[in-house]
Amino acid sequence: MLKCFEIQPDCGAVGPVLRWPAGTLQEAGCGLQPDGYPIRHGRGDPSFSVKALKRYQLVDYVSGACLMMRRTDFLEIGGFDPIYSPAYYEDTDLCMRLRGMGKAICLTSRAECYHIENATSHGVESAEWATRQSEKNRLIFMGKWDKILK
Length: 150
Hints:
Blueprint: H1 2-7, E1 11-19, E2 25-27, E3 30-32, E4 38-40, E5 56-58, E6 68-69, H2 71-76, H3 90-100, E7 104-114, H4 119-124, H5 127-149
Parallel strand pairs: 1-7
Antiparallel strand pairs: 1-2, 1-6, 3-4, 5-7
């Protein structure tokens, strides 16, 4: 992931391919639909080939589950916006703000992270809570980014 900053000088953030604990593909970077819902590249698609991706692939955002960025950029944009606390869309908003600075968001297809999706929220409440929180924060996100996404 660190090499991406050397190869892609305008890189603002980089993330790895995310896999479920069993090794199946969770996502290879994300796109955004005009309504703010994510497009998790490769998710649920057995024909999707991570090997076919470029080593450093441009994406709309990478998951905060494993995200690397320069400390100076993080401080300059004010870090994660607390309006999204405790979870969901804080990483998406962070990447959008980096993109607004002219920075690229990259997936590095040669790095992998095993991720238990929603593990934190499941421990706090339930899947219903995670869904409600995600939708609440999607609406906040759209209030901020609607014009750009459309």
